[in-house]
Amino acid sequence: MSEIIMISNARLSFPKLTEPTAFQEGQIKKYSADFILDPASDDFKKFMQEVSKMAQVKWNENAGAVLQMVQNDRKLRCFGMGSEKIDKKTFKPYLGYEGNAYINANNANMPQMIEANGKAVDPANTMAYQAQARKMYGGCYVNVALKPWIQENAFGRGIRCELVALQFAKDGEAFGDGVPDASSLFGSVTSAAAPAGIAFPSFLQ
User: pTM above 0.70?
Assistant: First the structure.
């Protein structure tokens, strides 16, 4: 069993938190996000130490060889360097990733949402849950509880990560252009009186 790893002030990217999403047809829908952080930070080191410990327990003397295989294939792991996350339009790393590390985590079940006071939102309270989830946009900072786990099944070996709980920490510069403001294109609207001598049908009055 792996431990839950607490990470503070990670930058949120590609959040799918208001409803689960399947990235390919036929896949299980999941809540997911990337968490960007300094590769030299204590939190990232703590995460990688847990991954190494789990690998040693699972694969014993073969742990080094398996971890090397996993390291060589980004599809087999939930973590990596930001330089690997390339925007197919610009052929450059996505905003916020360059020079950093990332951890990807997901969960088929709703992760816990933690309020500013540290209390968990009742998952049965859909409105409160959604309100917390909508606070968390790509570019903001969050505190997150993650649980890495070892994959070894018919689909192969790998290192995956469960998204356990999230708490909004602070605002940050949003990734992307955001919603365009078109208000300057509009003027005020005044209500027009009905022309004299025209009687509207009663159901229109």
Answer: yes
